Amino acid sequence: MARIIAGTHGGRTIAVPAKGTRPTTDRVREALFARLDHHDLVDGRRVLDLYAGSGALGLEAASRGASRVVLVEAARQAAQVCRENVGALGLRDVVEVVPRKVEAYLASDAAAPVAGERFGLVFVDPPYDLGEADLTRALDALATHLDEDAVVVVERSTRSPEPALPEGLELWETRRYGETALHLLERAPHDHAQA
């Protein structure tokens, strides 16, 4: 079990899949969201949680005021756990679970902006064994779905290299917590002018 750290559902527990996922620890989530909240990057934003696992990151964002959250998870059991967590927390009006592969979702009409709105905050938390080339392709496909002031959080092992970034994204900062590295990305400045 994991728990929602803060917000309207703070303290509530959520289920995690029995196998096949590596949930972000409560400590890492608490540190990450303190950083995001400090910069006002959660409340009122459309949030995308790729490789969602239990949905803990997206559900934390919903608890902290995200306007809309999409959890994308291809593993059947994990997607079911996401649906159960959304239902148990009473967040069906805010959180959508999409049981698809990340690449297929990003290439689909489902990921297209809703009424011109793109995603303002994205969590990319793939299995640590996902290859760097696959991660780069996912980030490249993601770039067209981002608001001009969007932030993308990529979670990797500290033993993994820094993600190779596609044109349009740049590294804002990297934070390390034990075995976990969080790479916070933002739109490159020249993209801001074109958006």
From TrEMBL:
Which Pfam family is an annotated match for this chain, by its short name?
Cons_hypoth95
For this UniProt record, the keywords arranged alphabetically read as follows: Methyltransferase, Transferase
Q: Which PROSITE patterns match?
A: N6_MTASE
Biological process, per Gene Ontology: rRNA methylation
Gene Ontology molecular function, alphabetical:
methyltransferase activity; nucleic acid binding
Keyword Transferase attributed: yes
Q: What is this protein called?
A: Methyltransferase
What is the scientific name of the source organism?
A: Litorihabitans aurantiacus
